[in-house]
Every structure is written in structure tokens, then in C-alpha cells.
Amino acid sequence: MHESTPCWNRELEFMAPDQLRALQSDRLCEVVKLVYEKVPYYRQKLDDAGVKPQDIKGVDDITRLPFTTKEDLRKTYPFDLFAVPMEQVVRIHASSGTTGKFTVVGYTDRDVDTWAEVMARTLAAGGTHRGDLVQNSYGYGLFTGGLGAHYGAERIGASVIPTSGGQTKRQVQILQDFGSTVLCCTPSYALVIGEVGEELGVSFKDLPLRVGFFGAEPWSATMRQEIESSLHAHALDIYGLSEIIGPGVGFECLEKAGLHINEDHFYPEVIDPVTGETVADGEMGELVFTTLTKEALPLLRYRTRDITRVIPEPCGCGRTLRRMRRVTGRTDDMLIIRGVNVFPSQIEEVLMGIEETTPNYVLVVDRKPRGMDEMEVQVEVSEKTFSDEMSRLETLSERIQSEIESTLGLRVSVRLVEPKTLERSMGKARRVIDRRDLGE
Ligand code: DLL
After folding, report:
1. Which of 51, 191, 369, 410 shows the smallest number of beta carbons within 10 Å?
2. Residue with CA at minimum distance from ligand 1 atom 14
3. Under CATH, domain 335-434 is a member of which superfamily?
4. What are the structural domain ranges in the chain?
């Protein structure tokens, strides 16, 4: 069965676990040496932690290394964590985040090559091959989505259509006229494409589109069903972050049962975000990565702030690369409303379970004059529901309110809005509007 699993690099994706661990150990020793010798900031950090490169003999010693955080990237802004001179940097990307400065990342020739390799694995795992038409609607630019998917598809030898995000009608026209077989974009934009296509009378089931690679923001299992039934194609989750390389850190295979981590290049750990201790195998926590092969921006134990768990059981596809569960939230996405911890994804789950609503919602958080925090859930209802009687809409809004209350233990107000009134995004969707002035 495994011989028939579509894949890009059989040798590395199906490597015996002990061999993989030996490779990771060798590479870890190299990277610690590299940052100690080439990056003064890291040398200082390791000296402060009392660790010398020769103390690290393999991945079992990794917990002796200090963490790297977004704060370290800020302090070294823009280039001071680079381990090579600018003459060897062939590309720079940056992500803006919600607060503060850009996070700037650099790549050598070999880093770009590694990136194409891990993205080729990602796309091949969903069956992409030479001859496929890959419509790449991730944004091209400082964001890593566009060029990351682009190089991966080219590495496979597929034909890339670099549409970038936006101009949705044109996206639908290209999908139809060119007969794109593969689509890459954020899951929220996939829904927008489906919605606009439907308005234009496109019958997706008659199009050759086979599979989509969706990531860059959290989404749920229910959202997968929505996308698959709208676009009539497989919807696979892909994960990554600029600091580590961009997209290509983790990818789903057609089993759709969690994301394989390209762990020969990015060594994963899951920690308790409060204590920093490693959690037991399979427990939820904050994902941490050490880059094992990066040259321009090698990072030790980088705290992603993404919450997930490692799935220790082997996957039905036969790959030995361990899997992680889909990322449902970030430690810093967590809203604290009247003392209750709320992740937007929990509200999304509730909304997705209610048939009369659509996947378009926004959470507006505000602080009342007396200092009480309030959250309003604005959600679009379906056309059919919207034309219902007022009283039925009221019942629906009460039902949503009570389901959220029983799931989260938090009373929120619910505002049902007309279909297609909430802002659509062509990249990462903005789900939370926090009007509280909480300072920095
Ligand atoms: O979003 C890279 C990427 C591009 C991934 C295209 C997948 C597809 P950044 O802009 O640096 O990089 O944002 C990274 O986005 O730490 C997560 O919080 C979130 N994220 C990325 N992929 C997923 C996903 C790109 N599949 C941050 N599920 C990460 C949930 C995701 N969150």
C-alpha cells in the first residue's frame, strides 16, 4: 500500500526512525556549532545559559539549549541573527504580525533549495505531479506563502499559475478556463472563491480541480467539509512560519489525519507554555522548532506560540515523519474576557455546528465604561435563514448564545448579519477586532 502513497522523497519521508534520529542528532550538533561561531547574539545567549557546543551530543541534549523567542528577533532586527554575510543571502522575506516591527528572515541559495524540497513534499503528498496546473493564490511579496508554494510546484515540474491573492472573479475565471487542477491559498480565501464561483454560476463539480493546499491561518475540520463540498476537491492543511522557513514545515497527506512534520529539517518539541518544560508525548502544548539545516537564519528552540500536540502513532500512509494535530490557536490569540480564556477557534467550532450560519464571523471585543469586557459575535446567516421571519432569527441568535455559553462558560452577545456583509479576506482572515485599549 505504501508504494502507492504519492510522495516526493521516499528515502527521507519513509526513513527508519532510528536513522532519522541519528541524522537529526548530527545536524543539531552542526547547527549549535554554527550559531556559536557565527552569531554573536547566540554565542552570548549560550554563554549565559552555560552551554558550549561540545555539550550537545545529540537531540537528547536539546533541552539544555535556551529558547529563542520573537523578542530575540526584535532585539536583533533586522539582520543580526543572520549567520552568513549578506553576500550569501539571496532572498529576504518578512512578516508583519499584529504588534511591533517586522520579523525579517533571510535565505541562502541552499535554504531556498531546502524550501523548494519541503514544499515539493507538501504538494506531492496531495498527489501533485508534473502536468498539473497549480493556481497559486497565496500572496506574492514579503509574505512567504506565494514564493514558497511557487518554488515547490516548480520543483515538481508542475505548471504554476502565479495569480497571487485577490481579484476573485478573475481567479474563478482562470480556474475555469485554464482548468487548474491544484489550488493554493488560505482556507478563508478558498471559501471566498467558492462563494464567488457559485454567484457566477460555476459548477465546481465539472471542473478538473482535484486538490487544494490551505494554510497560514487556523481552520477546523468542519471548515474542511465546507470547502470540500463547495469546491469539490480535497482540502489539505499545510503549516509553516516565516521564522522557520515559510510554508513547508508541516503537511497533510491524503489520510487527512494530522500534519507530517519535515523533521529531518525542523526538529519539533512541544512544551508547557508557562513552565517551558517538555510535555509528555502526545500532550497539548506550545510548538517549538529548531532548524537543523538552515544557513542564513538558523534558530534554536524557537517558540512558535502555536498550540498543538504531536501524534505519536504511525500514519496510514506509511511515512515515518511524525505528525502534529492541526493548529487550533496561538498562545497569544487567547482572549481573556471577564477572566475566561477564549480561543477564537472554540467559537468557530460552535458556529460551524449550526447549520443556519455561514463560516463568516468576526468577534468584536470591547471594554464597557465600568471596565467590564464584552464580546459580540457577529455571524453571517445563510440567504435562506435571513429571509425567515424575525422571530426565527431571534430564536437562532439565542440558540447560538446559549451554545457558546455552555461550551465556554461565557455569555456573549450575538449579532446575526446579512449574508456577504462581513469583510472578505484574500489572505489571512481577521477574526478578532479588539477595541479594548490594553496598551502594549
Ligand atoms: O503563514 C506561512 C504559510 C504560508 C503557511 C502559506 C502555510 C501556507 P507567517 O506569516 O510567518 O507564515 O505566519 C505563521 O501562521 O505561526 C501560525 O500561527 C499560522 N499558521 C500557519 N499555517 C497554519 C495552519 C505563514 N495550517 C503563523 N493552521 C504560524 C493554523 C497556521 N495556523
Report:
1. 369
2. 241
3. ANL, C-terminal domain (3.30.300.30)
4. 1-331, 335-434
